[in-house]
């Protein structure tokens, strides 16, 4: 169950009579909040009439004479369709959720964490940094929202307010503010953060295993999977040399920009930069030699003996565990940050398409909820000019103006999470209200916050920060979690007898520094060529995303954006590449700057005629320390590459239908690796063998109608359980994603690997085949219990279902009558984790239900933009009583898409409703 779903527990504990009123008369109550989508309405502040045309799916296309009118109208439309979602989000991002939902432990914990991060304060600073035009657009958008909500009661804005109003006192919503929009960018960045789970897990795994080689096995090198990076060896090697160029703050980023068709600019070789305060060392550090990485042990480097002692210390384990528990309280808005979160995108050159122009596909894999994350929209200036430059359509977020992913008349762009390492945990030594820096104890920064609780007593909160960022480990513990024990990390240089203090964990994250991502969104919307994309990318600070693009004049390309920290290479006691927590008292481990935008990887028109970006490593060699160490292991991206290459080699040109078919590909790399080995296991009992026989002729696709797919998923779940749960803390039990496939891949040829042994069986040492046998037998029994004794009755879709839940009123703890009204009907689906059709599930949960998946699918045909296609997981509306609440769900589940009109003629041809907004 996701963190956001957990947050819903207790929010809607209402009396039976109110429940009956909401559900029995649900349509009447719900329809009260439905907006008028045809006719005329006056909107204060408009300079001229604005037309809002909606098609059969209710998707709005907005036409205006002025840019400010365009965004004022978008704010009005967003408030029409999804105001409660917007209001809920702004309460979350401001750390004010308890003000909305009342005295709820999960909400209060969430507020504590968000206040500690200070998302709202950062957003306030970002408004001042934004360009004058962006500020103007944000204010116009806010004016449009406020024009809609001004004369409406809460019950006229969303049925959710009616339910919440039964238990808490609700006032009319506050006016929308531009900062509310900018704060949403922090939630988006948080959910799309990088490797912080892996960073914590390395330390926690070591505290249990106390064996660096075993920890290294759990985090294999990207290259061990054998999958290609985004930029190929030939492309990445074609830059215009490897000479050094100045980096930031004394950090020598090297290399120059690539020039010419097919060339890729990269940063060249690793930096020689110095650490802060002149304490870094040149040419040495944790990268080590050869392919084994730092300290000669494992891809990320094992900690030194001194750090070994610290990680085995109970005090640090407690601080790390408290940190993980605290971060789990942050409500999940668009993605969980777990292994199931990812995305697919690719572009194909016109030389390989039926139309002779490029095609682009994108399907971001995020948390799936009701309503879906995306809001489809078209934003069109009646006459495109410098003063009104918008003619774009695509996917955006309610609460934020513009289009985040989509196309305009000249260029299409898609986004996938790059996974760059933009967060670091620092182990701090805290004593009272001071913390250790070198030989000194310096004062912690402190500020006081008060959390208002609707119907309850206010909660006072003291937020403490170091130079790196806020202390996370003690946020949920009034006694200031950590440990009195400081056995070992580094011997104190202070005078004998001085207290060493307690362990605490701080978080440094690029998104906690104000940036200009808002400017980037509007720059993408008005981009015309590759140079415009590069300039937009330079503004796109967080979250770090892969950008693929294609232009109507025939180019395809890739650009990496993001504010990427530079870490000095330090010889120990811990790896300094960001893959392990870092000692906060040693300034050599501080960030030394950020990678310059001109040094970020890029490519245009590569020789092979396509680019695939699906969360895999960006560059050959794992992209070095400056981007990340922890990537998706590339099984999805490699499958996409295989399908593209096979079709190109066959001579058959690509159509839009071919691109959609790839998005729905269900072939399993797990099956490709494991089935040959599973078929070698001898099962003597016919009953046990029933499932195994299904695997013999199976095509390795996770089709919802497949019995073999259901059985194989159960085998994989049991294999992970039997292999790892005896050795790892529960927080690290395998979810079953790409990393665990890479781990098992590395173990299969080692039949006596220590992980095969079940530590719970005394005086017995299990081998690989014994564990595989156990997994096969257990899976057969599981299928009998879950589905039927007869394998002919099994199907993957019976186990693997998408059960969408409303973000606030759809989860456990909410009365069933309310859940039934708010949640769409479950859908059996194909696909699975690390499959191109990435309907992920969590193998540690005991359930096969979908936890994340393609939040939308789009294919853009640059030869004929009106021939493009799109679909979202639910629909445009956030009102359960609306026909457009989930009218795209069945098509999404079946792998279908809808026509995506763009030109005025195409939009008008499918218009079913027209609303005119008048000054």
TrEMBL record:
<keyword id="KW-0472">Membrane</keyword>
<keyword id="KW-0378">Hydrolase</keyword>
<dbReference type="InterPro" id="IPR014395">
    <property type="entry name" value="Pen/GL7ACA/AHL_acylase"/>
</dbReference>
<keyword id="KW-1133">Transmembrane helix</keyword>
<dbReference type="Pfam" id="PF01804">
    <property type="entry name" value="Penicil_amidase"/>
</dbReference>
<feature type="transmembrane region" description="Helical">
    <location>
        <begin position="7"/>
        <end position="29"/>
    </location>
</feature>
<dbReference type="InterPro" id="IPR043147">
    <property type="entry name" value="Penicillin_amidase_A-knob"/>
</dbReference>
<protein>
    <submittedName>
        <fullName>Penicillin acylase family protein</fullName>
    </submittedName>
</protein>
<dbReference type="InterPro" id="IPR029055">
    <property type="entry name" value="Ntn_hydrolases_N"/>
</dbReference>
<dbReference type="InterPro" id="IPR023343">
    <property type="entry name" value="Penicillin_amidase_dom1"/>
</dbReference>
<dbReference type="InterPro" id="IPR002692">
    <property type="entry name" value="S45"/>
</dbReference>
<keyword id="KW-0812">Transmembrane</keyword>
<feature type="compositionally biased region" description="Gly residues">
    <location>
        <begin position="275"/>
        <end position="299"/>
    </location>
</feature>
<feature type="compositionally biased region" description="Gly residues">
    <location>
        <begin position="238"/>
        <end position="265"/>
    </location>
</feature>
<comment type="similarity">
    <text>Belongs to the peptidase S45 family.</text>
</comment>
<feature type="region of interest" description="Disordered">
    <location>
        <begin position="226"/>
        <end position="308"/>
    </location>
</feature>
<dbReference type="InterPro" id="IPR043146">
    <property type="entry name" value="Penicillin_amidase_N_B-knob"/>
</dbReference>
<keyword id="KW-0865">Zymogen</keyword>
